[in-house]
């Protein structure tokens, strides 16, 4: 796609230096957060100390589902609607995160390895709006 | 602490806006029907009610943001009694029951009316619709596009991986539920469905199909509770509340409720539901083996298989075998949702936790007709709702 692209919500992820989502991490208890948490939510953590962190790289599919029908607004999608797979990914960086898979249902399995990518979710006014997604590796 | 009795219960049959059951009735009209029925069942008059605990939601209610309780009191007659409006998503009815129970047990009021009712918007339950990047639900919809049922289908898919559960076994849960629904005059659906019909219904979110996910409904339920001492004036042998409990999610909960969370060290399940049921067992001094039957929140068929295992009613991975052997039926060894469950009623969110109390009461009185659990002595019910809320109650005879 040679057209312009822009994040569907700004400030949540980046492609610079590799595809990553932007969150933070409590350095006391090592709990990762995405999106950023203003304080650590771990009740057993002794002191909330938040530091910005970017999360990318690889993970495995914990489970997945399919959007067989278009979700209601505020979701936006390209017409005609094409069902897509939504993965719940256990990443090596310690985050369990949800995201669309770019691969078709037939190829997706629990336990399969994936990596985080930035890819379009919908198009509007000749522009691609992107989000974080996952791709089988 | 006072012992608490369930004196009377009432339910408006569940339906869908515009049908022959609920038509265009407002939530206040639905609640009126349930309250009148509960008062009559209890043998008390409206003026004897000392307080109302109501399950409120953002979906319906006349005085703004879902003030069902105030609408009901105005409609019944403004006696000036306190109204407590509880908001806890689909767990609100259970929360309202817990608050009513706690106040009667604590000796604050002699007699409390607990009420929940709903007129639901059409289609999938959706978010506020506001485009606020600080709202995680907005981000989940805009960035991922995760329709409500896909949370459930993610859990259902994982169970297929963990235990080898098949799509046919999920469908059998629904066949079992709808077989019972024929005997429940309050259920929205009162017709059996065949395995082939369930499996022929379209995927809403693969692996879950249309007939396997409970739709939204309109309906209402009300119960009158009072101290044991007070109950003696009305009934020689009332159904007693063994306990009522409320819990919320634990930090270790790793279900995909938001965009992300830390990868858990152990297995993943509904921590709020497990915690609340175990708390109820502990408070009541009642164990899973003592439970005659269970009414649990089956937003989809997955829960009827997973929850009994998570709570110790049966062993992990054993649910499918028990279902196949007929043990889930009202006449089985582990009756699950002898009401027909959410899948036969549809979900009228705030009514559910109150409706479960009514179902438990009828079972324990032996008034459940064709869906009766023979010799039912102890009933367990559970709800969970948006925000990580869960409630449980145990009733006994
Ligand atoms: Zn911490």
Describe the overall structure.
The complex is a heterodimer of chains A (137) and B (397). Chain A is mostly beta strands and 137 residues long. Chain A contains no helices and ten strands. Chain A has one domain (4-136). In chain A, strands 6-7-8-10-9 form a five-stranded mixed beta barrel. In chain A, strands 2, 3, 4 and 5 form a four-stranded antiparallel beta sheet that branches. In chain A, a hairpin with a 5-residue loop joins β3 and β4. In chain B, strands 3-2-4-7-1-8-12-11-10 form a nine-stranded mixed beta sheet, sandwiched between helices. In chain B, strands 5-6 form a two-stranded antiparallel ribbon. Chain B starts with a strand and ends with a strand. Classes of the chains: A mainly beta (137), B alpha/beta (397). At the A-B interface, β4, β6, β7 and β8 of A face α4, α5, β5 and β9 of B. β8 of chain A pairs antiparallel with β9 (260-262) of chain B. Bound molecules: zinc ion (ZN). Zinc ion is lined by residues 26, 28-29, 31, 40, 42, 45, 48 of chain A.
Task: Produce a short descriptive summary.
The complex is a heterodimer of chains A (137) and B (397). With 137 residues, chain A is an all-beta fold.
């Amino acid at each position: 796609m040679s057209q312009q692209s822009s994040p569907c919500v700004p400030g949540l992820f980046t492609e610079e230096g590799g595809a990553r989502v932007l969150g933070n991490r409590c350095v006391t208890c090592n709990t990762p957060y995405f999106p950023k948490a203003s304080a650590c939510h771990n009740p057993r953590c002794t002191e909330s100390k938040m530091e910005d962190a970017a999360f990318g790289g690889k993970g495995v599919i914990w489970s997945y589902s399919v959007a067989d029908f278009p979700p209601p607004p505020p979701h936006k999608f390209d017409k005609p609607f094409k069902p897509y797979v939504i993965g719940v990914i256990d990443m090596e960086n310690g985050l369990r995160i949800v995201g669309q898979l770019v691969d078709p249902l037939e190829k997706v399995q629990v336990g399969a390895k994936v990596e985080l990518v930035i890819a379009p979710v919908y198009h509007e006014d000749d522009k691609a709006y992107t989000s974080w997604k996952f791709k089988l590796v | 602490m006072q012992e608490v009795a369930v004196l009377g219960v009432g339910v408006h049959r569940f339906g869908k806006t515009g049908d022959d059951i609920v038509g265009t009735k407002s939530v206040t009209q639905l609640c009126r029907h349930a309250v009148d029925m509960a008062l009559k069942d209890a043998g008390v008059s409206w003026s004897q009610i000392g307080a109302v605990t109501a399950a409120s939601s953002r979906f319906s209610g006349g005085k703004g943001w879902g003030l069902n309780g105030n609408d009901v009191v105005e409609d019944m007659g403004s006696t000036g009694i306190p109204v407590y409006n509880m908001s806890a998503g689909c767990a609100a009815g259970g929360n309202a029951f817990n608050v009513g129970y706690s106040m009667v047990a604590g000796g604050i009021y002699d007699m409390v009316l607990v009420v929940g009712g709903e007129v639901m918007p059409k289609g999938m339950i959706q978010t506020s619709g506001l485009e606020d990047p600080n709202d995680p639900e907005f981000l989940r919809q805009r960035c991922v596009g995760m329709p409500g049922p896909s949370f459930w289908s993610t859990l259902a898919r994982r169970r297929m991986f963990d235990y080898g559960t098949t799509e046919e076994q999920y469908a059998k849960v629904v066949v079992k539920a709808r077989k019972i629904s024929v005997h429940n005059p309050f259920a929205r659906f009162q017709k059996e469905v065949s395995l082939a019909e369930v499996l022929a219904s379209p995927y809403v979110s693969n692996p879950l199909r249309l007939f396997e996910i409970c739709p939204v409904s309109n309906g209402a339920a009300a119960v009158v509770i009072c101290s044991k001492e007070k109950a003696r004036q009305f009934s020689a042998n009332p159904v007693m509340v063994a306990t009522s409990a409320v819990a919320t999610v634990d930090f270790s909960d790793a279900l995909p409720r938001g965009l992300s969370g830390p990868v858990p060290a152990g297995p993943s399940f509904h921590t709020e539901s497990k915690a609340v049921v175990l708390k109820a067992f502990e408070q009541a001094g009642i164990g899973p083996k003592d439970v005659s039957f269970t009414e649990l929140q089956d937003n989809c068929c997955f829960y009827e298989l997973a929850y009994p295992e998570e709570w110790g009613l049966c062993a992990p991975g054993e649910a499918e075998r028990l279902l196949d052997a007929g043990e889930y039926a009202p006449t089985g060894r582990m009756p699950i949702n002898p009401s027909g469950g959410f899948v036969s009623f549809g979900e009228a969110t705030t009514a559910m936790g109150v409706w479960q109390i009514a179902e438990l009461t009828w079972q324990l009185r032996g008034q459940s007709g064709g869906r009766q659990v023979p010799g039912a002595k102890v009933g367990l019910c559970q709800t969970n709702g948006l925000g990580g809320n869960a409630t449980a109650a145990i009733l006994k005879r």
